[in-house]
Amino acid sequence: MVYVPYISSKLPGYDGPYPVGAFDLELPIDEPDTEPSASFKLDSDDQPLQLESVLFTMFYPTNKKALENKKLIKWFPRPFASTAYGYAKLAEISRTFAGTVPVRRFNRT
């Protein structure tokens, strides 16, 4: 048996008429925006949350040859622990809780 955290596993395969490719795209914001209602404060006068760019994954139809030897995409970027702790800090959740993730169990074939 192998235990794999759900959110660190790969996205499921797509069963539509075309294979799907993906890439991450980060775009700068023309006028950076701050979030004054952030519940945590910095020691300096800097804003704790300043939106300077937007990062997203774009999925697009492609051909099968373009996907040869490509790995499936993961739910969350690596390193997973750093990503989880960052979200936990933003949500004011303890690091201990952030390190606890549900797992699924399956038989190794």
TrEMBL record:
Q: Which InterPro entries match?
A: AB_hydrolase_fold
Q: Which UniProt keywords apply?
A: Hydrolase, Lipid degradation, Lipid metabolism
| E.C. number | 3.1.1.47
GO terms of molecular function: 1-alkyl-2-acetylglycerophosphocholine esterase activity
Q: Which GO terms describe its biological process?
A: lipid catabolic process
Q: Which residue ranges traverse the bilayer?
A: none
Name of this chain's protein: 1-alkyl-2-acetylglycerophosphocholine esterase
The organism encoding this protein is Wallemia hederae
